[in-house]
């Protein structure tokens, strides 16, 4: 029995027809389960290279079908991650302002039509279902927890006109206890506040990392005006009070401005308020139900600091957090819901790993791809890849590490990671500057051999398995000075324990590092720059390696270094435009306060996202049909050597921002970055 779960939007990658609220139709994904067991899952952003993709997960579905060796017509059931009534309401709202006769006002017919257009076969409408958004969150956690019984808390920004639920799971069933309306959304509570700290949607985790630098006391009473706690675990948030109050009380931070202590204190107060509300809800339901275990899902469940506080509180004997708690995880929940309805529930076993995405190609294919970049890369194959990689890192190198199938969810868990020595505090600043181009305060996570975790981290009770970076835990006092690159300012770390059984290749490289240094830990962060999702393919990995200052790259059994590429090497590459990019000429004010025609390249057809480019580069890019070798493009206009170098440099900067693609001509891929 094959069941396919979907999350995300309805547009093709180059379209913007379906305009919906930002809190819905993002984080697209597809998950395929056979008889209740996951066989393939991937987020669309990994394949179409659009962060938090709000597009129809076409490439994700294609991958899932390919992994199973089936056609869409062979899928027994497809499930979408919201109720049919909610989707129909969204369609009516969208089409009220922009009527389109080609779009049916029926969500099921629309999904049926879109899938038929992409895959050439039409599923019978009886094989398409819509499931409750928060029920999908809840099932995605409980079914993967291994618990026979537990309390379930699914909480996020919004979906199906709600923002969360509390339920009890027992066997394969879930009994709902309470729901929370959109106007009581804890996700919106957090988001509404961080707007005044210069952040927006999808930046919530950044503020969580900033909070330990602040003191919640100065703004505690102010934040208490934003929410009320009442009997029976009930609460109310006053979203309408946040903006006016903060505008009167703090200096609003604009994006890019430095953080003041005031901003740090507000972050701390916000985090404290969230934790206080969550504890209030859970204490009541823990006492009312007698449940000693807890499952968490929904976007708010990615608040690892909150999860850590719950862990240390002793309120529950065991806590399971769905590793893809955001909306991509609803694709998993949707697939499991319909699989259970068809008599194939998920087996009651604790989730150990989420390496469900595309695998690396064969060693021969990887070697061919690396060879195509001969002017830019040098590489060697080795049977001692873990030992050699550990040697690099022990010598101070920061490397990209790509092995096996990619991870499902927002965390790099050792198959698509950037790795480094966790000891030098300078590594944190170095990686932030040379790869991530992100705020210097943000911490990096440690990956530790599961059997050595308690020596370095103060873990509560008998807990020793933390495979998904879902909890912030305490670094032992005696180890904080040693682990300078992964210990946050408050003495904590977002921990991943690594099992030899679940992740043998990753275990091997950490163990090899331990043999050289005595430290069974590596700094682990996602393999991407600040402009892109986590890499998935070999091509993605090469692009990110060449557009950052990483010291080395390990792909399968290959050790890769950079060459000093010449201008001829760069102009020998092909250039293409991603399908989500568009070119524009607009009238705008220049630095001299004169209105002139300027050229822009945009990634979402929005002027807010435009990056200005030179008229020469604009002219060059408009000449591309599909793809074109850069040298051939440059030869179409009269340029001296300095101008060729300048245009090539400008193009390379756009490549770093993922607004153009550069690749060897014969190695071009639909999904290549």
Automatic annotation (TrEMBL):
Residues 23-336 form the Carbamoyltransferase domain. GO terms for molecular function: catalytic activity. Gene3D superfamilies: 3.30.420.40, Carbamoyltransferase, C-terminal domain. CDD domains: ASKHA_NBD_NovN-like_N. Transmembrane segments: none annotated. InterPro entries: ATPase_NBD, Carbam_trans_C, Carbam_trans_C_sf, Carbtransf_dom, NodU/CmcH_Carbamoyltrnsfr. It holds the Pfam family Carbam_trans_C. SUPFAM superfamilies: Actin-like ATPase domain. It comes from the Bacteria. Residues 390-562 form the Carbamoyltransferase C-terminal domain. Belongs to the NodU/CmcH family. This is Nodulation protein. It comes from Mesorhizobium erdmanii. The lineage of its organism: Bacteria, Pseudomonadati, Pseudomonadota, Alphaproteobacteria, Hyphomicrobiales.
């Amino acid at each position: 029995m094959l069941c396919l779960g979907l999350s995300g939007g309805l547009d093709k990658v180059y379209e913007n027809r379906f305009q919906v609220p930002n809190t819905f139709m993002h984080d697209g994904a597809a998950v395929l389960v056979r008889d209740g067991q996951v066989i393939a899952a991937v987020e669309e952003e990994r394949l179409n290279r659009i962060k938090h993709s709000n597009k129809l997960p076409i490439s994700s579905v294609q991958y899932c079908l390919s992994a199973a060796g089936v056609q869409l017509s062979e899928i027994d059931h497809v499930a979408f991650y919201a109720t049919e009534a909610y989707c129909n309401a969204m369609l009516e709202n969208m089409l009220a302002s922009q009527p389109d006769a080609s779009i049916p006002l029926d969500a099921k017919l629309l999904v049926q039509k879109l899938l038929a257009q992409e895959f050439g076969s039409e599923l019978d409408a009886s094989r398409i279902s819509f499931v409750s958004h928060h029920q999908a969150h809840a099932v995605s956690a409980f079914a993967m927890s291994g618990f026979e019984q537990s309390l379930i808390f699914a909480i996020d920004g919004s979906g199906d006109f709600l923002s969360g639920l509390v339920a009890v799971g027992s066997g394969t069933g879930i009994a709902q206890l309470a729901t929370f309306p959109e106007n009581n959304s804890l996700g919106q509570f957090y988001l509404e506040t961080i707007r005044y700290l210069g952040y927006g949607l999808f930046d919530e985790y950044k503020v969580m990392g900033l909070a330990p630098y602040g003191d919640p006391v100065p703004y505690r009473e102010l934040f208490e005006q934003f929410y009320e706690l009442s009997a029976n675990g009930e609460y109310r948030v006053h979203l309408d009070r946040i903006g006016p109050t903060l505008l009167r009380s703090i200096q609003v931070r604009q994006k890019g401005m430095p953080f003041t202590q005031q901003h740090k204190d507000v972050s701390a107060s916000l985090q404290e308020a969230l934790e206080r509300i969550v504890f209030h809800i859970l204490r009541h339901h823990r006492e009312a139900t007698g449940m000693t275990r807890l499952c968490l899902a929904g976007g708010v469940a990615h608040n690892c600091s909150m999860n850590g506080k719950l862990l240390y509180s002793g309120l529950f004997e065991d806590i399971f957090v769905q590793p893809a708690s955001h909306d991509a995880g609803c694709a998993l929940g949707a697939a499991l819901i319909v699989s259970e309805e068809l008599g194939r529930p998920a087996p009651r076993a604790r989730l150990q790993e989420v390496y469900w995405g595309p695998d690396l190609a064969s060693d021969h294919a990887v070697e061919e791809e690396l060879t195509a970049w001969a002017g830019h890369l040098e590489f060697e194959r080795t049977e001692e890849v873990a030992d050699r990689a550990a040697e690099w890192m022990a010598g101070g190198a920061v490397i990209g590490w790509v092995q096996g199938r990619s991870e499902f969810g927002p965390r790099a868990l050792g198959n698509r990671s950037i790795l480094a020595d966790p000891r030098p505090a300078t590594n944190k600043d170095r990686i932030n500057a040379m790869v991530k181009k992100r705020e210097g305060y943000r911490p990096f996570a440690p990956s530790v051999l599961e059997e050595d975790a308690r020596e370095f981290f103060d873990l509560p009770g008998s807990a020793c398995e933390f495979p998904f970076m879902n909890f912030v835990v305490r670094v032992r006092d005696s180890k904080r000075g040693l682990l300078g690159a992964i210990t946050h300012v408050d003495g904590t770390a977002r921990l991943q324990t690594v099992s030899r059984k679940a992740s043998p290749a990753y275990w091997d490289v950490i163990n090899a590092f331990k043999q050289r240094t005595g430290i069974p830990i590596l700094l682990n962060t996602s393999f991407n720059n600040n402009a892109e999702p986590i890499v998935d393919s070999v091509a993605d990995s090469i692009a990110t390696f060449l557009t950052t200052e990483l010291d080395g790259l390990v792909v399968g059994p290959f050790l890769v270094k950079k060459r000093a590429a010449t201008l001829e090497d760069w102009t020998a590459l092909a250039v293409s435009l991603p399908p989500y990019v568009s070119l524009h000429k607009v009238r705008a004010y220049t630095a001299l306060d004169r209105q002139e025609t300027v050229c822009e390249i945009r990634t979402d057809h929005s002027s807010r996202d435009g990056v200005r480019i030179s008229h020469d580069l604009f002219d060059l890019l408009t000449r591309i049909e599909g793809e074109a070798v850069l040298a051939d493009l440059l030869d179409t206009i009269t340029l001296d050597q300095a101008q060729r170098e300048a245009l090539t440099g400008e193009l390379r900067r756009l490549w770093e921002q993922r607004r153009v693609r550069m690749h060897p001509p014969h190695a071009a891929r639909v999904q290549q970055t």
